[in-house]
Amino acid sequence: MMVARKLRWIGVVVAAMLWLPAPSQGYAQGMPAAQVADLPAVAVADLPAQARDTLRAIKQGGPFPFKRDGAVFNNFEQDLPKHRRGYYHEYTVVTPGVRRIITGESGEYYYTADHYQTFERILE
After folding, report:
1. 54: exposed, middle or buried (C-beta count within 10 Å: 0-12, 13-18, 19+)?
2. What are the beta bridge partners of residue 90?
3. Measured between alpha carbons, how far is residue 44 from residues 14, 107, 108 in Å?
4. Where in the sequence is the domain holding 71, given as residue range(s)?
5. DSSP characters for 22-40?
């Protein structure tokens, strides 16, 4: 009876481990805040018009077209400088495909045109 219970518990643990996503290399290594300079940069004028519209809405406090605009961006892969949870927030750029602007509490802005695969720091 006790052995069956232990085996069931081991099965639950293994199933949970298989269900969780594997950490990416960026997540495992982290990214010191000093490396923000290593991120590519993009000038506001070089952003797509829709991204400039989203940036303008962020600075004006809205209105935003999507319910999740302003939601916490967790930065799980740590492609952006590491900060506490809740530091970053994300906003949808209305275009075909998945594009976002991520804001940081210190007033920095990041743009991703490929659904969080790469980021560019927005230079103003």
Report:
1. buried
2. 71, 102
3. 47, 14, 12
4. 2-123
5. PPPHHHHH---GGGGGGS-
> Residues 7-22: pLDDT tens digits?
565 555 444 444 444 3
pLDDT digits (tens, 9 = 90+) for 70-120: 999 999 989 999 999 999 999 999 988 889 999 999 999 999 999 899 999
Whichever domain contains 47, its CATH number is 3.10.450.30
| Distance, first Cα to last Cα, the chain | 67
pTM: 0.70
State both tokens at 27: 């997540």
Question: Catalytic positions, please?
Answer: 90, 115
Spatial distance between the Cα atoms of 41 and 110, rounded to a whole number of angstroms = 9
Q: Which amino acid is at 65?
A: P
Q: How many separate domains does the chain show?
A: 1
Instruction: Provide the edge-to-edge strand list for the sheet that holds 41-43.
Output: 41-43, 120-123, 109-112, 99-104, 88-93, 71-73
Q: Which helix (H) or strand (E) holds 103?
A: strand 99-104
